[in-house]
Every structure is written in C-alpha cells, then in structure tokens.
Amino acid sequence: MSRQEEFPYLDAYDIFDFPDPALGPGDGPICAGGNLSPGMVLSAYERGFFPWYSHKEPILWWSPDPRFVLKLSDLHFSSSLQKLVKKNEFTFTFDTAFDQVIKHCSQAPRPGQSGTWIVQDIQDSYLHLHRLGYAHSVETWLDGNLVAGLYGVALDSLFCGESMFSLVSNASKLAFYHLCQALKKRGIDLIDSQVHTDLFYSFGAREITRLEYLSGLKTRVKTRQGRLFGSWKDWTKS
C-alpha cells in the first residue's frame, strides 16, 4: 500500500482489495499503510482485517490466527452477573455517547501496555463510521454519569467488538450483557473479539482458525449496498 498521505480517500461504498489474509502471518500484521477512510476500514473488516497500531507507527492491518470469537449460542453469564442485572441499578443506552465511549476506551489502563492503540486517528475514523451508521456504542449510566461502555462495528450478522471501559465495578459487563440481548433479537449471532481475553473467555468465547473465521465471513457479511445500517438509539426501548 502507499503511504497514508498519498492514498486516496475511499467513501463508504468504495471497495479496497486487501490481500488474501490466509497467506499472511497469524501472529503479526499482514500489511501496512493506506488510510482510515470509511471505505478502507469497512473493506478491511469485510476481508477479515482490522487496524491495530501505536502512535508514530504506520497503519498496521491484522488478521490473527487463531481468531477469538463468541457465538451467541454459546453465550453464558455467571449467576452473580445475572443478579446484578436484576438489581436494575444502572441505565443503558445505545449510540448516545459514542464520542465519550471511545475517548474513555483510549484512556483506560491496559495491563502490560504503556500507551494505547486507540490513537486520535482511530478515534476520528470510528466516530465518522458511527455518524455513517456502521460503528455503534453501548453506554452504562449511573445517576446521570457515564460509568462504562463499549463500541464496535456491525456487519450484518457479525459484530466486531473493539474496546470497552469501566469506571465502576462490573458496569462494562452489564453493558455487554445488554448488547448481547439486543444482538440476539436482531439475528446477529457472532461477536468477533479478535484476540483472547479472559473476560470474553468467561462469557463463552473460543478460538477458531483464521480459515474458519474467513469462511464464516462469506455467509454472514452481505454486499455493502444491501446492508442495513443507521443509528441504534431506538434499541434502548426494546
């Protein structure tokens, strides 16, 4: 790919032909460069890639092998979390404070990491995708204050989870609980967690091969022209 400043801007219906991710390494970036315009990022997800890089690095595109995913048919929540749900202490919304959620995610401390991969260019790109109706957030509120949230990209029957944060114990888990309930009602049956996390493992996520993940993309992801997209704000009421 060309350097970012020389690469053409791609709008939401433009397609970029990424290389075949099955031919690249499973434990490192497969390609670098391009930009974070809507067509570029959506093409990446449709091809099995996602951007992941640090400040001052070029844009790096990854497609790990194995891939860590959660089939909603395998989803399970602990009895303690379900008790918290029944307490009804928090309020939950969808697509109400995406900009605040991604900012908090960029500032959340990560074990073993001194910085963040959610650099300003990533924040700007995903906020643009949110305004276009492709990137979405779930927010957890307590006494009118945002205390947790998560965001990701929706591709038909696949939700690509990106990051989450929590300022109050268990609040992000509750946001994820409400996301899953809403996704199941709307026929979205797979969450891509990209790489292993203990939290998602506790919910039932497991590793699959990259080839299995890429094969599933072909059945789950439609052409962009036929995709349903838009705000999820009304999901709060369902």
Strand percentage: 15-25%
Distance between the termini: 43 Å
Order of helices and strands: EHEEEHEHHEEEHEHEH
Q: Mean pLDDT score, rounded?
A: 93
Structural class comes to: alpha+beta
Number of strands: 10
Write out the strand line-up for the largest beta sheet, numbering strands in chain order.
Answer: 5-6-7-8-9-4-10
Q: Spans of 5+ residues with little confidence (pLDDT < 50)? A: none
For the sheet with most strands, the description reads: 7 strands, mixed
Global morphology: globular
Number of helices: 7
Radius of gyration: 17 Å
Helix content: 25-40%
Tell me what you see in this structure.
The N and C termini lie far apart (43 Å). β6 and β7 form a beta hairpin. The chain is globular, with a radius of gyration of 17 Å. Strands 5-6-7-8-9-4-10 form a seven-stranded mixed beta sheet, sandwiched between helices. Strands 1-3-2 form a three-stranded antiparallel beta sheet, with helices on one face. The longest helix is centred in the last third of the chain and has 15 residues. α3 runs antiparallel to α4. The protein is 31% helix and 22% strand. It has 238 residues and is an alpha+beta fold.
Short description:
The protein has 238 residues and is of the alpha+beta class. The chain has helices spanning 38-47, 79-87, 98-107, 120-132, 171-185, 198-203, 210-220; strands at 31-32, 50-51, 60-62, 67-71, 91-94, 135-142, 145-155, 158-166, 190-194, 206-208.
Q: Could you name the key traits of this structure?
A:
single chain, 238 residues, alpha+beta, 3-stranded antiparallel β-sheet, 7 helices
